[in-house]
């Protein structure tokens, strides 16, 4: 009868379960060997599963026939994950040689073409036959969904991306090497700021307003009106040159001083694409937000937020003496469209008012502060309202901003314009050529404006999100009840000198801000953040610059003589390069 002896039992003096690490036999035998997790339910049929299927359905085995790979890979249930496969394997092999020059050669035969008509312009070099991109099973060329069309065109991001001009934009102002960067803020940080501001306090009013001509609300594409050239004088002085603001600053009315045009750009900064710059001057406890003259604030952008915005032609190569800039730039370039949009906005706001009574013009408490006695040209309909907004967060601090706001007309029969009732701001959207580069997929206004106005408005809200947001903020800051937007198109797409008014719409600024997803609280948070940042700095002149190619704003410190023509180091206006619509 065989003998039986009990195995050796190793007691754990530490009081825990299992053998102790001190008396474990052969404890140095497996030292520094990594441990791989396993499951008791796994069958130990093989040492390693070389046929494991990865997430992209590629077999990890090398040199095995495809039939064997497919057979062994299907043994595990679909969707089941091997125990411990999510952990970092210590047994993994890492290849250290450089394989950047490796490329996969596709030896599959290309499908035959189905006719020269489809092959022309849609070559097979972009990932398939030309006919398949047009017709095929999913009909993605014309009738399919946008996702199918994008997939069949080889996974490109958008339509005709290879024709887009990817030239980088130039900064709106020449950044001298002598400037020192103080702060850099990304747009995603600006979008998180919030500050609730109460209703403003009206200080004083200046200027004269004419009544808005309601007949323009009944204009349609069938009863279009020509846009007239109206010779009127309208001022747009910067903050520090405003005589009224100078008087208010002498009385310490507020801490920060700005105009509604400058303030709207800062409040809508996360939407901006084109570059801009704001001059910030700190004198004592006062802060002034100024603009350059001329500068980006004097321009009206066109399709700034479109996926393929209008572009300016690249400058001539200085190393090539034979290359010259075109004598006449394209009428659909970014700079030409900006000048055309400014021309249209001014003339439409001058034309859409009634200058000859009735109804009569309304004079504010004081005449226009910028119109001197030597001026002979007639003034445009414009009223200035100086208002103070309280940006204080706690009761102990006193941070107020004085803003010069503008209104363009008043609605007759609606309250008293002197008390802020029935005020109107007038703006204009322009159509240049729906088929040109930079049109942003806009429909033809003459065929869609009356029947599908919603589609036209949605396209403009997408392509001109920044411009419409700034107009809305300006109207809200001025306390306007309505914002009149005219739809103006060229008589001929190839002629940018003659235009017609196709329609006019009335929008309440507060309601339009909700449609555009414009948050006034976010805008005031941005203004307060920039104010706190500048008030912590010593007295001097600073420039807030929007990066021309990145969603970033930077604050630079400059000399007092910058932009005054008195500096000799190349920091002045004479050496500015680039424009806001490049």
What can you see in these coordinates?
- The chain has 582 residues and is of the alpha+beta class.
- It has two domains: 126-154, no CATH class; 180-313 and 330-575, no CATH class.
- The chain is built from 13 helices and 17 strands.
- It has helices at 66-73, 116-119, 130-134, 146-152, 187-190, 243-250, 260-267, 334-351, 445-448, 453-463, 465-478, 509-516, 520-535; strands spanning 180-186, 201-209, 211-212, 225-226, 256-259, 277-283, 286-290, 353-354, 362-363, 382-390, 400-407, 409-410, 423-431, 482-492, 495-507, 540-546, 552-558.
- The strands form three sheets. It has a ten-stranded mixed sheet. A five-stranded mixed sheet has the order 4-15-14-13-12. A two-stranded antiparallel sheet has the order 3-8.
- Strand 16 and strand 17 form a beta hairpin.
- Helix 7 (260-267) crosses helix 11 (465-478), helix 7 (260-267) packs across helix 13 and helix 11 packs antiparallel against helix 12 (509-516).
- It is globular and about 130 Å long.
- Uncertain runs with pLDDT below 50, 5 residues or more? 54-90, 113-165, 567-582
Instruction: Please write the string of helix (H) and strand (E) elements.
Output: HHHHEHEEEHEHEEHEEEEEEHHHEEHHEE
Average predicted local confidence, pLDDT: 79
Structural class comes to alpha+beta
How large is the share of residues in beta strands? 15-25%
Our count of domains comes out at 2
* Major beta sheet, strand line-up: 1-17-16-6-7-5-11-10-2-9
Helix content: 10-25%
Please outline the major beta sheet: 10 strands, mixed
